[in-house]
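Much of what follows relies on a compact textual record of a protein's fold. A complete example follows; check for yourself that the lines match position by position.
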Amino acid sequence: MGGTSAERPISLKTGQAIYQSLNRQGFHVVAIDAAKPLPEALKKKSINYAYIALHGPGGEDGCVQGLLEWLKIPYTGSGVLASAMAMDKAVSKRLFDAAQLPTASWYSLKKPRPLTAAEQTSKTHPSSCKGGMECRLDYPV
């Protein structure tokens, strides 16, 4: 629980709720804050199963899952590859499209190229357009 991502506060709440629930059910539970050196904490506590309660990068992207696999500790949730692909929204959308699953139209942004002169003077874009994303998509967005 916890971790170092911007989603740390919600991860701490999630972790506490899971900790309390498992404790009430009679399980021997150890809470570990993933903001601290995680490999050392996992080895020191000698846990035999990990219930992942992390949100955001570092917790949902396959990193912690890979560490747990390396340490041979079983865990909840998806594996390394599934976690990494699900965290990358463009990869997820490509997989959904390939499987012909219904999904909303989408556009993946990386670093846009400069607009051509014709694109800059296009009537379909607002006159305030200076080359940002609002110039690449027709309105309304």
